[in-house]
Amino acid sequence: MKKLSTFLLMIFSISSYAQEKTLAEKLGYSKEDRLLIIHADDIGMAHSENIATIDAIKNGVVNSTSIMMPCAWSTEVGELIKDMPGLDIGVHITLTNEWHTYKYAPIASKSEVPGLVGPDGFMYKDCASVAQNASPEEVEKEMRAQIEAAIKIGIKPTHLDSHMGCVFYGRPEYVASYIKLAEEYGIPAMLNQQIVDGVIKPNPELFKDLDVDNLILIDETAIASPQSYDTMGMENFYTELLNNLKPGVTVLLNHIAFNDAEMQAITTRFTHWHAKWRQDDYDFFTSQKARNLITANNIKLITWEEIGKKLK
């Protein structure tokens, strides 16, 4: 009986240890390592966004991006990345069109996803309008259409994430579809513990057929806010962030483009997230200072592709 009890205790201890392993440890790092994905949202939005983002990947420290397939310049990305077979590129699930003069519609037929089409014939400006009007079936159909459209232009998606967070701030069914599609295509979906606690746990019936016990959860998500932009400026914000990066896996979101006529026109009347903001992001993440900060703080850069391959 004593031997049996000891054996059961050993099994329990091994099981507990496995459950307590951090994402960093699952990836083969220590739980004290600082792991970072430097991720440029919104490629495909504009020619300026495309060429600046790719340059920041080739010549800077940006190592991940995700594409907005409904946008006018998304197909260009397929041509621009032909010499980048290892590119870490996901699908930036896009359910909104926030711009005043730059418009785009769903990838799926408007007749099939009418709830995603606003009065002007294009996507709604905000997440609340999407949640109010778009059924879960329509949103899942549009998500799938965007993933398939990316594949058709030669992209091999490494992950899914969400433009403006509308998947997470809409209906819980949107999150279920998001996870379902990630499982179906065999790629990670960007999620964190807050989404588990706030969306998945309160709605167990919606997620009962999904492998929610083995979700890949990012430890931290970092992004410059309008307040940090106004009070600190991008260089100071990112410098402080990198100097104080916590152990674990952090996704640092940025938006990279040039402050040129195209981006100025697209972002007209926006006081933040505009052309200068995106140029500031480009300037920092292609700077020697960014490289030095990563080295000085012993930060290890990882990608969604690495996460997907190691945790399959």
TrEMBL record:
Pfam families: YdjC. It comes from the Bacteria. Its cofactor is Mg(2+). CDD domains: YdjC_TTHB029_like (cd10802). Keywords: Carbohydrate metabolism, Hydrolase, Magnesium, Metal-binding, Signal. Gene3D superfamilies: Glycoside hydrolase/deacetylase. Residues 1-18 form the signal peptide. This is Polysaccharide deacetylase family protein.
